[in-house]
Each structure stands twice: as structure tokens, then as C-alpha cells.
């Protein structure tokens, strides 16, 4: 089955700096890669996703890049702000029949310090 | 995206009892899923709730422990049976189909504590 590895497990950056979180996946058939942000005590919130037919997608201060050959994808957050502090999860889909299931990475705790 | 609600939001249960969690969506969705998130951990898929048929369970999860119902396209329940302290977790439902079959949105979760 699909296996998703995520690094680093914790990341501390100063406000205004950039943050990069990296994930690798094992199943070459995976074609959908979402990123979720989870604040303490809240539900995971979809912040950006990318499909395998594109290499990069950007939405304001966040961007995701995908390298299908190497089977890795990354989340980039620029001009970080204290409200970016949260746990971030990457995921990859497992297209099995009619259900597209997600396998999640282990999460990255991002701390943005003043 | 759809509005997803879960009941209860939290509960404290005694060992050996069961808890049923409800997930309600404000519009019809293609797929509904149930996840477990243990303290400080990632999300693990328990099962896919299939409308009108038996749920599809992931490796390590069985129907006797986690019976699931999905009577229609907007509602599902997860029961956690014969509770033990190891079942203390957050249980989340998610839905997909809005706008695509891949995109999943999560409910607010149910925090279960087993004494």
C-alpha cells in the first residue's frame, strides 16, 4: 500500500521567514496530493492540493511543488506569520476502485516565532 | 465546501461500554470516511462508509469493534465497541465528492476519553 513520509517533524522559523515541508510517497499510481493545516483542538483544514498533471501550484503565500519522477512533493510558506503556527499534514491518494482514500504523513509542527 | 457536523463533540466513557458518533453533512456527498487520530499523532483511516452496504475496513480495523452505518448520502455513524483506554482518541469523519471525488473535508471531530 501507499506509504507517505514527512520531514521535518518540527520546524521553528522567525516571522517573515520561509518554511518548507517535504513529503515522499511510494505508490507511483498516486495522483492527488493535498496539504492540511490543523490548529490545536481543531479539525484538519485543506489549504492547498496538487494533481499529478502539474508541477507547481500557488495560492497567495503558500505553494506546493511536485516531482513525480522522484515521488516527492513539498509545501512552501513564504512571509510566515504567527497564525501559520500549526501542525501540517501531507497526504497522497490511493485510487482504489470508486473510493479515493488518503494516506497521511506523520505531520510537521510549525512554530513561527516573533 | 459542505458543512459537516459531528455529535457528540466529546465524551467520557467507562471501559466495556460503547459510543456511537454521528456525522451529518448538509448536502449529498459521494464518499464518507472515518478516521482516528491518537493524541499527537497523524490521521489513520478506519473505514469507508458505503451508502446502503457494508463499510470497507482498513487493515487492523474490524466491523465487530467499529460498526459503521450509512443509511443515506448525508449521514453516517461510527460505533466504537467494548471500549478500553487504548480507544481514547479523536474520531473524525470526512467527506468527498464536493467538488471532486478526491477532495476530502473533515468534520470537527469527537474526542473520546475512556476511563
List the keywords.
heterodimer; A: 114 residues; mainly beta; six-stranded mixed β-sheet; five-stranded antiparallel β-sheet; 0% helix; B: 115 residues; seven-stranded mixed β-sheet; four-stranded antiparallel β-sheet; 11 strands; globular
Q: Could you describe the 3D structure shown?
A:
- The complex is a heterodimer of chains A (114) and B (115).
- Chain A is mainly β and 114 residues long.
- Chain A is built from no helices and eleven strands.
- Chain A has strands at residues 4-7, 10-14, 19-25, 32-38, 45-51, 56-59, 62-67, 72-77, 86-96, 99-104, 108-113.
- In chain A, the strands form two sheets. In chain A, strands 2, 4, 5, 9, 10 and 11 form a six-stranded mixed sheet that branches.
- In chain A, strand 6 and strand 7 (62-67) form a beta hairpin.
- Chain A is globular.
- With 115 residues, chain B is mainly β.
- In chain B, 0% of the residues lie in helices and 50% in strands.
- In chain B, strands 2, 4, 5, 6, 9, 10 and 11 form a seven-stranded mixed sheet that branches. Chain B has a four-stranded antiparallel sheet with strand order 1-3-8-7, with no helix packed on it.
- In chain B, a hairpin with a 6-residue loop joins strand 5 (44-49) and strand 6 (56-57).
- Chain B is globular.
- The model of chain B has no long low-confidence stretch (mean pLDDT 94).
- Chains A and B meet through strand 4, strand 5 and strand 10 of A and strand 5 and strand 10 of B.
Amino acid at each position: 500500500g501507499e506509504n507517505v513520509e514527512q520531514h521535518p517533524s518540527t520546524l521553528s522559523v522567525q516571522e517573515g521567514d520561509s518554511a518548507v515541508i517535504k513529503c515522499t510517497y511510494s505508490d507511483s499510481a498516486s495522483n492527488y496530493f493535498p496539504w492540511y493545516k490543523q490548529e490545536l483542538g481543531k479539525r484538519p483544514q485543506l489549504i492547498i492540493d496538487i494533481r499529478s498533471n502539474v508541477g507547481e501550484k500557488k495560492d497567495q503565500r503558500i505553494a506546493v511543488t511536485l516531482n513525480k519522477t522522484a515521488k516527492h512533493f513539498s509545501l512552501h510558506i513564504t512571509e510566515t506569520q504567527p497564525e501559520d503556527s500549526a501542525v501540517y499534514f501531507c497526504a497522497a491518494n490511493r485510487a482504489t476502485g470508486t473510493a479515493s482514500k488518503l494516506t497521511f504523513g506523520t505531520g510537521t509542527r510549525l512554530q513561527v516565532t516573533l | 465546501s459542505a458543512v459537516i457536523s459531528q455529535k457528540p463533540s466529546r465524551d467520557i466513557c467507562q471501559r466495556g461500554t460503547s459510543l456511537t458518533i454521528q456525522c451529518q453533512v448538509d448536502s449529498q456527498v459521494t464518499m464518507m470516511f472515518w478516521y482516528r487520530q491518537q493524541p499527537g499523532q497523524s490521521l489513520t483511516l478506519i473505514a469507508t462508509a458505503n451508502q446502503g452496504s457494508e463499510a470497507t475496513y482498513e487493515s487492523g480495523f474490524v466491523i465487530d469493534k467499529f460498526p459503521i452505518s450509512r443509511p443515506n448520502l448525508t449521514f453516517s455513524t461510527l460505533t466504537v465497541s467494548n471500549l478500553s483506554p487504548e480507544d481514547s482518541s479523536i474520531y473524525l469523519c470526512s467527506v468527498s465528492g464536493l467538488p471532486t471525488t478526491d477532495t476530502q473535508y473533515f468534520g470537527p471531530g469527537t474526542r473520546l476519553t475512556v476511563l
